[in-house]
Amino acid sequence: MNGVVRDFDVEAFLAEQGPAVEEALERALVTLLPTLPEVLREPLRHGVMSGGKRLRPILCVAAYEACGREASDAAYDLSVSLEMIHAYSLMHDDLPCMDDADLRRGTATPHTLFGEAETARAALILIPAASRQAWGACLALGRDEVVARQVVLELNRAAGSGGMVGGQVLDLFGEDQTLTADELDALHRRKTGALLTCSLVVGALAAGAEERTLGALERYAHAIGLAFQVADDLLDATASSGDLGKNPSDAALGKSTYVSLYGLEEAGRRAGQLVAEARQALGEADVHAAALQALASYIVNRKR
Ligand code: GRG
Fold this sequence. Notes:
With 304 residues, the chain is mainly α. The chain has one domain: Farnesyl Diphosphate Synthase (Orthogonal Bundle), CATH 1.10.600. The protein has helices spanning 10-32, 38-49, 55-66, 73-93, 110-114, 116-140, 145-159, 164-173, 181-206, 211-238, 241-244, 258-262, 264-284, 290-301; strands at 103-104, 107-108. It is globular and about 50 Å long. The chain binds geranylgeranyl diphosphate. Geranylgeranyl diphosphate is lined by residues 52-53, 55, 86, 89-90, 92-93, 98, 105, 164-165, 168-169, 191-192, 232.
């Protein structure tokens, strides 16, 4: 679908980033879990530690590095605030009152293992915990409270009704309806795009990026946010639930997708165009970040 970035091994890069993200998540849980009633600890741990690509933290740290900073434990601690919001959203998304899924990341969903009420409650704890996580990490990175406040604000804005939650509402209300291209873009810019965009913005803010770099990273993020969803729809239409490790499919839920709207070939072309837009945004602001260039391609070429 889209060419690989020469001389950059994205698979090796992801394999290297993964353990640093897992360790930061463990550090966050070591602080958080003992503060909770026992009955909520296992659903929360399962929701956060059940794997996944860890794309949001990886993008956050890649943006931080693209702004000339060196990744440290505190940078990964910041990045996992995004994964905590993502984990809560998946825990809720899989509940019977939403997508009613029993498989996610190749494993049983938390509510099927630990109960609906326990999972719903445990997931909610992750929202304020993510804000505290981001705040503490910003200060540990040497940023002042003005920047830390801006980071926490961006995180909550992306997670809220103007972002992910608002997109989820549009998604649920759009079931069994045929959405237009503009409606589908608006839905996914919020549901999936807002948090992905926030991942880069937070990394850049914490790095003290100048306006021009911040703007370029934001444009890059808008493009890959949508490209991610187009690729997700292509995978949903072409791979089995066993290969993807999740269910049910969008078709089974009566959802409009980029594939139902454009067909496989045209949706693939759109994903390619969005990757090109993302790369161009970096080039225009002279952001030389091989990892981000390669991640844009990975997002549309991934197999899960
Ligand atoms: C109150 C209406 C209301 C909603 C609560 C449930 C919810 C908030 C939001 C759902 C948002 C959601 C499920 C977005 C899905 C985004 C998405 C494409 C997830 C899959 O992301 P990957 O592929 O997953 O990065 P992994 O498993 O790799 O982490």
